[in-house]
Structures are given as C-alpha cells and as structure tokens.
Design a protein that fits this description.
The protein is α/β, with parallel strands linked by helices and 884 residues long. Helices cover 46% and strands 13% of the residues.
Length: 884
Amino acid sequence: MELFEHIRLQLRSQVTVLTPNRRLSATLLRHYNQYQQSLGQLSWPSPSIVPLTRWLEQLWQEASFAQLGPIRRKLTATQEQLLWDEILKASPATERLLQIEAAAETAKSAWGILKQWRVPLDHPALATTEDSHVFLQWATRFQALCDENQWLDANQFIEQLTQCIQERFIQLPERILVCGFTELTPLQEHLFTVCQKAGTDIVFYDQLYPHEKNDTPVQIGLTDTETEIISMARWALKKNHASSPSIGCIVPNLETIREQVLRIFTEVFSENQCYTVDPTTLPFNISAGKNLATYPIIYAALQWLQLPLQTLSYETMSRLLRSPFLGEAEKEQAQRALFDIHLCNTQRTPLSLLQILQSALPVNLKNKCPYLYKRCAAFLEQYHTLSTATSNTWANHFLELLTVLGWPGERSLNSPEYQIVQRWLELLEELASINHFVPAQNYESALHYLIRITNTTLYQPKTPEAPIQILGLLEAAGSPFDYLWVMGTDDANWPPPLKPNPFLPQRLQKTLKMPHASAERELTYSKRLLEQLIQNTSHIIFSYPKQNAECQLRPSPLISTLPEITLEELDLPPFIHPAETIYQTQALETITDEFGPAILPTEQIRGGMQIFKHQAACPFKAFAEIRLQAKQHEPPTLGLRYQDRGTVVHKALEFIWQEIKTSTRLVDYPDAELNAFITTCVTQALEKVAHQQTAQKRYLQLEIERVTTLLRNWLDIEKNRPPFSIVSQEQECSVTLGSIPLTLRIDRIDKLDDGAQLIIDYKTGKNNPIQSWFSDRPDEPQLPLYCTVNQPNTIGIAFAEIHQENLGLKGIAKQDISIKTIKPIHDTPYAENRTWAEQIHAWQQTLEKISHDFSQGHAKVDPKNNSETCRYCHLHAFCRVYAV
C-alpha cells in the first residue's frame, strides 16, 4: 500500500504520522505491522504513528525543557471548565440565568471556536449582538486570568507551540504524514504551515486504503431505527466469518442510543439464546463511553456521599441498601433485603440517613443490619468532624468516608469495574488540582464540584480487540474497513441540523464556515465525510429509517442517487427476539393440582375478611396471599396512599360521632361551630394517620381542606335521615366461621327509632354496587358476614359512599326504613330470597362453604371474572392464568 510503503521508506529519516484519534493510530500501526510481515520481514523499526493531540503534548514537553525561563502551565479540561464557571458566577450578566454551569460550557465552546478559527477578541463582529457582547466580557476576563497566572488552555497551548516552533525551541521531524482528517481548522492549518516554513515536509493522505475493487455503495430504507439496528447487527453477524474482515457499524447518534444498540447486538450475537455471557467475549466493541456517574459502582459512591446533605426517595434508598458496593454486602444481603421491605411498608419517603439511624421502631437498622448500622454511624460521626478545607483535602476526605462505608464492597471487582474505579480515583486527583481556581469550601460545595466533574466525564472500559467496531460518525472518519454499514442517513439528520453557538454572531459563524453554522457548511462537510467513508471501504451500505415517532422520512439527498436494495437481497441470518424465543419454546407440563394442604389445628391463619374476599374472587389468590404470603409491597408515595386517605375519613367520622352521638344533636349543631369541629376532627385524624409525613405541611393542609368539605357535605345528607343514634363505632368482635377464627371490626352501627340496628360500612370509593353481596361468590362479603353475626337486632346493611362524586347510603333492609336508597329485601332485584331470614340463611351457607374450601386448601386458579378479577392482581406470573 502507498501509505505504508511511504512510511517504510522514510523510516531511516525522521517521519511522524499524525491521525485525528487514537483508534486510527492503533489501526494504522497494526496494519503497518501486517504489511511488513507480508513482505517477509522478521523485524523492523516501529514508526511514530500518533494522534495529533498526543504529538502536540510531546512537542510541549520538548519546548518546556528547551526554554530557560519560566513556562506557562497548561490547564486540564476540568480546570478550564471550572475557571469558566467561576467567571460566569461572578458576572452580573448571569443573575437571571437558571443554569449557569450549562452557560459556562457553551461559553467555553465559543472560546474554543474563536481560537480554532483564529478570531481575535477585538474583532468588530463580536460586539454586534447583546449575547456576543456579554461573552466578550467573559472571554476578556478569561484571557486576563490566564495571562496573570501564566496559564494556557487547550487552544492557547497550540498557539504557544506554534510560537516555539517559529523560535526554533522544538526540533521537528523531517516529514509529517497527515492521515484521515476530514477537515482542518484554521489553527491546525497554521500550525502545519509554520512546520513547513521550519523545513518539515508535510504530506496529506486522504485515501488511506485504496481498494483495487470497490463495490458500488448502496442504500436501503427500513421501517424504523430499531429495525435498522437489528438489520445492521444481523449483517455484521453474517460478515463475521473465519477470514476476520474488518467490519464497521456507524451510528451517528451513538451516544444517545448506546444502550439500545448494545442490547440488540448482544441479543443478535448470543449463542443458544444465552444472554448473560461476558460482553468481552463477544466479537464486537462499542466505542461510545457512558457518563461515569451512571455506572452503578460510581452512582452508589456519589449517592452515599450526598446522604448527609439531603433526603432521598424510597427508590434511591432501596437501591443503595441493596448495593453490592458496601461493606458486608454479601454477608448481610438477606437482612438488608428484609429491611428494604420494612422501609417500603412504613411508607416513609423521602428518607434521610439520620432518620434511619435514629428510628425507635421495633424494626430498625441497628437490630436488623448491625454491620451496615455500624458503618453508617461511623460515616456520620466522621462527617460531623469535617469543616471548611481546600479541594485537595476534600479529595482525601471523600475517599476516607467511602472507605468507612466499605466501598467498593467485599467481593472482588471484575475488570470493567476495576477500570471504572481507577478512572474515578483519577477524577479525585483532578478535584485536588483545582485549588487555584476555587477558594476553601465546605462539604456541600466540594461535593458539588466532584459530582460535576464526574457527570461531565465519559468513560468506556477497555476491551479486547474485536473484528466488529460500532462507532460514531466522526470517530469512523478515515478508518479503513472491509465492510461498512452507516445507519441514520435520512433527510432530517444527514446533513445534521444546524446548531450555531448562541454566544457568537451567526453572521460571523457563517462567514468563517464554523461548525454547524450554516446549511452550506454542513452540506460541504457531509459530502467530504461521505467521500472519505467510500474511499476507505470496499463494501458500504447506507440505511435510513422510513419513519420516526413523528413523521415520514426520506433518504438523505447525499445518498438518494445510490442504488437501492432490500433486506431480501442481503440474505441476512434469521433473528428472533428473546421474548419471542422464550414464548415459542414453551413446554408446559400440565398437572391437575387444585388443592394445597388443609389447615392444621396448630396453624395460625391471619387475614380476616380478606380470606373470604380472596377465596370468592379466586381460590388460588387466597391460598397464595394468605397461606404463602405472596403479597405485593406498595412503594411509598410522596403524599398519602389511597388507603391512608380512606383511613383519615374513617377516623375523622369516628371522632365526630363520639361527640355528636345522635342525629338530633347533629341537626341542632350551629353551622359555624360544626365546620370548625369537623376541621378539628380531620386534623386529629391526619395526625394519627400521617404522623410520618408531617414535613409536607402544604400538602397536609390541602388534604384537611378537602376532607373537611367532603365530610361537611356528607353530614348534610345524614341530617336528612330519619332519627337515629350511634350504638357503636369501630366495634370489634371475635367469631369463628367454619374453622377460621375472625376478628371483625364494624365501622358503625346505628340504632333507629324502633330499636332495630342498621350496620354501615364506610366506602371512600365511588363504585360500590350492592349486587356485590350476592351470588355464591360475593365480591364484598364483609357486610353479609356482619349481618349473620348480629342476626336478632340487625334490620339492614348499607354502604356509606363518601366520595366527591357519590355521596349517600345504599343498601338493603328487612323492611322499609324510610330511606329511599335502602331497599326492602323483597324489592331488591339482586336477591334470590324474598325474606330477610332466608337471605341471612343463604349468606351463612355461602360464607361457611367459602370457609370450608379455604380450610381444606382449595386453591384452584379459578377467577370469578377474568377481565375484572385478574386486572389488578399481581400473581399472573405465579398462577400462569394466561398460559393455560
């Protein structure tokens, strides 16, 4: 090959090969070694093939040794960004900005563009707009700070290098080969021009791998982006044969859909439907890094460091409790999982570390997870000893605090985790290096800087070389491939949409053809990139999605003239989605087993009315939830749960009737006093039910107002009833039905004028049909059961619906009791029995049969009404009702 032959012949003299990125440098070096082997060589001098940035660093080190006087200090990327942050924070122009740090990143980018395009700060265009005028003030301050402290940013560093070359402080190679650059910025062009004037021969190579026979590039339109990724993965699987060709898969927006691409490629390349293999054994590498803070081992460290400063949601706290990256995580795994369930059941959210440590509840961290309690207590104790310090001191403090917690855990780290931890330790060193840019600070401020540095760091653990490379568009430019698939080349995204820098005048950006400034510039750049991809690849496919979530798409004008192919022509290997594979390979073994073990005399059964309700709805549900304790844990909510809101209404009515007692007194109660009394009762009820959410004062005040209005309207309905008095509220009675002992709690029993009793059950939902009391499998067996227990005195049963949209009593009675919504039994269409005694007898028989079935272990998967019974049930995977 021409390039490699050129390098081989020039090695006796000084020659350096420069590339735009490390990937291309490594590829060229590997291919050069293969070229030497093809010539029969057993040994050869190693050429200097390096990325441009690394070469410039080498020149800077040489210049630093050559100069006798003091040299300027080169800023790291972190230091440079923090300097911009501090400049914007101190500027009056940013007082109304909501995201100063994001603006600082944009300002830093604008500064870099000006330097790369060699635009001086005194350029008249920079003062033509309000935004650019403000930016000019920031840029002038940045320049002044750099000059005052002898600092250099990444762009000034190249300018300084150019000056050193001109002053002959640096010895350049005789020849420089510039390979694989899609474009050069004016600053880079100036650098190479200065090198030429200093006597170095500069040679540019655009086509690195001229292929003798290139296939004609083709295009293919696919349904959507996911279909594109699946098709590309299947194509790569087909091309990955024994001859080990180089295969490239280019995803323009790889950084945003990285996880989707990784998942699909892993599924396509899985063998024997095994999806848990070590990713380093797969024949593909994905180049895009992830935000370092998103890796679980770093996420856990940052969240624990934030615990003394804030409260966390239950979900976050649960994730930390179950984290394997804490001390004794393996030894105490079961206890921590149980404590996690306990936190869920207590409905505490948000949570603080101090609350968890100081909990006086019977189930607490100290007695359930003693190892974790000891570490957390030591962590808080050490935290309270910290005060204002410099950044390098804080870097040590953070590491010490994590060590107290046992981070990164007791198990051995795998290779990716080890690399991630090492990269984060480097970030702690970067935090220590910002002393000159930020003053001494407190814990919160120092942690903020650490989180910011971590969030802006992309990282990808090193993996073995693989024949298939999944790359971003710019990263692939200049890289040679035998086979290449470029996806996402639709008319909406290629050329990419404009994105000029908001701090620079658009006219200036368009005139100087700065990145993303004009359609003309993006078109020219995309054409050049397209040519480069085609030149360096033997076989290339361009694909585009025909639609996205919003609209129909067409191929980019850059590929619209290429021949179009179909998936059938590619003859790709078959692919079945894992879920479909699992479904197709189902082999159900049918065993008729509808009974569990009968209840033993020594077995304690808890569940109360839920036993009858579940057994009537579906016998398996009762067996699973009551006997096997297969219950779903409801995650905490920020406000009150639905059942808690219902409890507040129940408790407030209990307080109200404890005082009022009769309907006569209710009617005589003055309205103003009644309103105040209702509010007092609701407040007392909330204090008992919501004692753990007292910090949510505004929310609780709104809840008091809502319930007070609701109960005021309900009591207006109670006033219009025939006279009654309250016999009991929340009365408990113990009974045994069949072999099941029960403790019943009756919401309320009213005594009517004739001495008969009406049993009332409060319902805060709006749909409570009385037909749910009837049939051999009643949906709501509670009131019928109460009625059978209190047979002689009970004249009727009723739901008291207390809901904004439904307010009123509905029920049935032995006879007419002068309440329109409570019908006599003989006028009730749902009742098969026409007399009260017959109905009570029928209920008793029904409930005894349900009790008997449950006692004997009857556990058939038999939902009463599939669409309704199974809709909100969480046992589908257990009972497999839909697999039968």
